[in-house]
């Protein structure tokens, strides 16, 4: 699922990372390729076009930040737009009493399996679901629901084989349900190979009688855009409240998932990812976007860091470093930024492969207590001392150690490290200057 789309996106990002800055030209080229892969994934044409336009607008707009690499920024834009395309927020079921869920869809989409999956899930959530077989055409479907219900220990209403009136079945089922002490009723209905008038008329009657809070269309993701048009048909007929997309475990290309919300305006509420009853989960647009992008949590990391770093300040201190002017005031600014990022441990944990790397670091490498001491020492200096640390001699050192609640050894160590750091920065600055001059000579 989504494999070729994921690959194509990964390729695009790789190419864009190669460019220092995003220009109209290189983003247009890259997005043309993405658009083709969307179409190959069977995404509806106008949805693909809209999507690309939105990404392009954002990528060329002011949202692309100055110092974070544009390649990473593009990933974030894609993540946000994919999330939006998939429906934005997760939409929960309306289970207010009387909680009735009508399952509709074509034959073979996975209605019966999904009814049982849903029942199992609701049961795990502490509700008391009941299953009602409303397929009067296929006795086998009634048996199938009965078997699944027994597996998960959920009562199943099975209509008499001779019954032909669907509304009567529903009426009897409601009466039966009263004695069952259930809280959610799930109605599994008959499907067809294709949508036909008779089926739709029957469904309309049933829908009118039950007035269900939820009417879920079960659609097979493998059928791509066809699943989307089926959803539209059922919606026109009975008004669906959501979609369950099944068989996402197969080699579906993803077009159904990506076009569904945009075309029908209805949220995907659950997904089926296997034949087993536990292969069923709530649909979260954001998580799915992450999966498509194969990015893990890097996206939220970029977001976290972007929020918390004061770019102007960071640039200023980088410049001062290069010019060899870096002093303890800049040092304090940097400390504040690092502290603002929160526990370094957690942040690094979001990077793929970081667990392994962390094991190789010295035990206290990420210990922020060390930073606290350093900061306390700097805060005990006078503004003059911060600007010109070379004036900090014997008695001043003693005073600073006392004021910061540290030891003279720690103060000495920090001053020494800082001195070396400055020396290094200065010599780097000088090197640059020399190179420039040499370049000018040639
Ligand atoms: P119905 O005719 O709509 O009631 O469909 P069924 O529930 O009988 O399912 C049709 C077939 O699809 C069965 O073989 C199911 O095991 C299979 N199926 C249903 N959901 C999924 C799914 O999410 N993944 C896979 N791989 N198979 C599924």
Automatic annotation (TrEMBL):
Keyword Amino-acid biosynthesis: no
Keyword hit for GTP-binding: yes
Catalytic activity: GTP + H2O = GDP + phosphate + H(+)
Subcellular location: Cytoplasm
Gene Ontology BP terms: SRP-dependent cotranslational protein targeting to membrane
SMART domains reported for this sequence: AAA, SRP54, SRP54_N
Gene Ontology CC annotations of this record: signal recognition particle
InterPro entries per UniProt: AAA+_ATPase, P-loop_NTPase, Signal_recog_part_SRP54_M_sf, Signal_recog_particl_SRP54_hlx, Signal_recog_particle_SRP54_M, SRP, SRP54, SRP54_GTPase_dom
EC identifiers of the protein: 3.6.5.4
Residues the record lists as binding GTP: 105-112, 188-192, 246-249
Transmembrane segment boundaries: none
Family: Belongs to the GTP-binding SRP family. SRP54 subfamily.
Domain notes: Composed of three domains: the N-terminal N domain, which is responsible for interactions with the ribosome, the central G domain, which binds GTP, and the C-terminal M domain, which binds the RNA and the signal sequence of the RNC.
HAMAP family: SRP54 (MF_00306)
Subunit and partners: Part of the signal recognition particle protein translocation system, which is composed of SRP and FtsY.
PANTHER family in the cross-refs: SIGNAL RECOGNITION PARTICLE 54K PROTEIN SRP54 (PTHR11564), SIGNAL RECOGNITION PARTICLE SUBUNIT SRP54 (PTHR11564:SF5)
Protein name: Signal recognition particle protein
């Amino acid at each position: 699922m989504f494999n070729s789309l994921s690959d194509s996106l990964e390729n695009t990002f790789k190419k864009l990372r190669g460019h220092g800055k995003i220009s109209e030209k290189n983003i247009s080229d890259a997005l043309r390729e993405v658009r083709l892969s969307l179409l190959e994934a069977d995404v509806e044409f106008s949805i693909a076009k809209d999507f690309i336009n939105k990404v392009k607008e954002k990528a060329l707009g002011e949202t692309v930040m100055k110092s974070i690499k544009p390649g990473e920024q593009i990933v974030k834009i894609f993540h946000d737009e994919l999330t939006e395309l998939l429906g934005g927020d997760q939409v929960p079921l309306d289970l207010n009493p009387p909680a009735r869920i009508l399952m509709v869809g074509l034959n073979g989409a996975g209605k019966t399996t999904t009814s049982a999956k849903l029942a199992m899930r609701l049961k795990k959530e502490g509700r008391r679901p009941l299953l009602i077989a409303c397929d009067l055409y296929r006795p086998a479907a009634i048996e199938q629901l009965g078997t699944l219900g027994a597996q998960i220990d959920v009562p199943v209403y099975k209509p008499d084989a001779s019954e032909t009136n669907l509304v009567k079945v529903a009426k009897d089922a409601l009466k039966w349900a009263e004695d069952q002490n259930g809280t959610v009723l799930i109605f599994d209905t008959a499907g067809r190979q294709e949508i036909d008038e008779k089926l739709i008329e029957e469904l309309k009657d049933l829908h009118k009688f039950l007035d269900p809070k939820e009417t879920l269309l079960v659609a097979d993701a493998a059928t791509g855009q066809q699943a989307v048009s089926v959803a539209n048909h059922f919606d026109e007929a009975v008004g669906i409240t959501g979609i369950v997309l099944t068989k996402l475990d197969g080699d579906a290309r993803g077009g159904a998932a990506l076009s569904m919300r945009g075309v029908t305006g209805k949220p995907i509420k659950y997904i089926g990812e296997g034949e087993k009853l536990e292969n069923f989960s709530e649909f979260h647009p954001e998580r799915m976007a992450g999966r498509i992008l194969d990015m893990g949590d890097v996206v939220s990391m970029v977001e976290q860091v972007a929020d918390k770093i004061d770019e102007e300040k960071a640039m200023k201190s980088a410049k001062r470093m290069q010019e060899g002017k870096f002093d303890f005031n800049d040092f304090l600014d940097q400390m504040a930024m690092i502290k603002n990022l929160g526990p370094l441990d957690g942040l690094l944990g979001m990077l793929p492969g970081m667990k392994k790397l962390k094991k190789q670091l010295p035990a206290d490498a990420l210990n922020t207590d060390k930073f606290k001491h350093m900061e306390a020492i700097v805060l005990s200096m006078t503004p003059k001392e911060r600007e010109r640390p070379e004036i900090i001699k014997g008695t001043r050192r003693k005073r600073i150690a006392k004021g910061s609640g540290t030891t003279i050894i720690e103060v000495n160590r920090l001053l020494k490290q800082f001195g070396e750091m400055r020396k290094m920065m200065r010599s780097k600055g000088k090197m640059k200057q020399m190179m420039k001059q040499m370049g000018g000579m040639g």
